[in-house]
Design brief:
There is one protein chain. The protein is α+β, with helices and mostly antiparallel strands and 116 residues long. A 4-stranded mixed sheet has the order 2-1-3-4. Helix 2 links the parallel strand 1 and strand 2.
Length: 116
Amino acid sequence: MGLFGKKKKEKTTSCCCGGNCTPENMAKAENAKTEGASVKILGSGCAKCNQLEAATREAITQLGMDSTIDRVTDFVQIATYGVMTTPALVVDGKVVSYGKVLKAEEVMTILQKVRG
């Protein structure tokens, strides 16, 4: 009813990805977790994400590893990892760090532990 100037409330979603959580998108995101690079940086592409990527590249180079780094910026895919605070570092499908920028030495330690 349009009496007294009341406006209809628009539907808002409380979804982490802004309402894009269709079964198809969620299935794609789950598949993306296991495909592609074995080292992933999760984040929006902000300065902290870039710093974590640079530290990870440096660590991989110093360790002489043959890994590529994949950037995941899609929030649906990030949510499938259970990460709510970025940047995050994923190695071989496991979230090993989130919510902070690691130094190259810290990334090296993590990679050595995970890859043994």
